């Protein structure tokens, strides 16, 4: 039979999908071949059948009918997001048909990816610093790992310092991250005259030095909040595409007194990998053989309170309180 069903951990096709359709009606799809293919969403036949189908059908591109199935997932947000921003992100997931199991900070997700990868190599206590410089976020977090327990000590970020800020300064950023020179060509820039310029990495670093220094200020603030000396850090994990910029890596190595930067995790995938690990841990009744029973204890990045007077907040939950 033409049945497809989606469960928490697998996709079923044919008889297995049909058998569990009664217990999972909104995620069991049928009749698509006979009634949906080749028709418009506004077709009267589809409009009548929508009332009978347990799954949801909506109008897509060019009025084509699209089937919505419900998924569970973990969503990551920048560490500096406040409660309103986190709720808005969760609401966006619900609107998209995603059951949000948990909202976690992006550097914390990267730490989960790191911890799973290093688990076999190290047993005991480790202090890890996550440096996450992505296209739209800049976050840093300091965590203590004790075997399979992840404890966030402090986190910091800057909403006005992200990878796109470097892009806006110089579009040749990606080339200069791997080569010492980049050629900039613009055809017919002025009155039919082509523009040609050889741009060096040194010039790029000079133009962006204020942004590099702001990165280090955020790093220092995180250590100040955690009341920890940088010499106690065991690993510095780079996350986000802009963490590949050589000057960023050079400044971090100098700050951490020539400590090697941990680069075994793909900076572009670390956050998504960690979110997938967290989703696996939260999936009840599903046993993922390659995912150990990790315990994550995150903290509130901002203080929460109530408005006592017109412009005074009475703090109820202080910043860096452990989230149960």
UniProtKB/TrEMBL annotation:
Gene3D superfamilies: 3.30.30.30, 3.30.420.40, Actin, Chain A, domain 4 (3.90.640.10), Substrate Binding Domain Of DNAk, Chain A, domain 1 (2.60.34.10). It holds the Pfam family HSP70. The keyword Metal-binding does not apply. InterPro entries: ATPase_NBD, Heat_shock_70_CS, HSP70_peptide-bd_sf, Hsp_70_fam. Keywords: ATP-binding, Nucleotide-binding, Stress response. Belongs to the heat shock protein 70 family. This is Heat shock protein.
């Amino acid at each position: 039979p033409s049945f497809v069903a989606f469960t928490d951990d697998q996709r079923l096709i044919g008889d297995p999908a049909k058998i569990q359709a009664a217990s999972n009606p909104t995620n069991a799809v049928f009749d698509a071949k006979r009634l949906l293919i080749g028709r418009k969403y506004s077709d009267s036949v589809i409009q009548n059948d929508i009332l009978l189908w347990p799954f949801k059908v909506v109008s897509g591109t060019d009025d084509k009918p699209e089937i919505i199935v419900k998924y569970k997932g973990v969503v990551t947000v920048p560490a500096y997001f406040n409660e309103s921003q986190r709720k808005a992100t969760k609401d966006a997931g619900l609107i998209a048909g995603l059951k949000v199991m948990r909202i976690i900070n992006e550097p914390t997700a990267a730490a989960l990816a790191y911890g799973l990868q290093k688990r076999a190599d190290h047993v005991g206590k480790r202090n890890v610093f996550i440096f996450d410089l992505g296209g739209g976020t800049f976050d840093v977090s300091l965590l203590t790992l004790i075997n399979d327990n992840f404890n966030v000590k402090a986190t910091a970020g800057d909403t006005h310092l992200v990878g796109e800020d470097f892009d806006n300064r110089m579009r040749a950023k990606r080339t200069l991250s791997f080569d010492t020179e980049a050629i900039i060509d613009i055809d017919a820039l002025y009155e039919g005259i082509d523009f040609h310029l050889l741009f060096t990495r040194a010039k790029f670093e000079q133009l962006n030095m204020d942004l590099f220094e702001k990165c280090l200020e955020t790093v220092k603030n995180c250590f100040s909040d955690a009341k920890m000396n940088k010499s106690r850090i065991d690993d510095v994990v780079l996350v986000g595409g802009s963490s590949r910029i050589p000057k960023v890596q050079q400044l971090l190595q100098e700050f951490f007194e020539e400590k090697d930067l941990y680069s075994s995790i793909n900076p572009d995938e670390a956050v998504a990998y960690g979110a997938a690990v967290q989703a696996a841990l939260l999936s009840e009744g599903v046993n993922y053989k390659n995912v150990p029973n990790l315990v994550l204890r995150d903290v509130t990045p901002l203080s929460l309170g109530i408005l006592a007077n017109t412009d005074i907040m009475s703090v109820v939950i202080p910043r860096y309180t452990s989230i149960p």
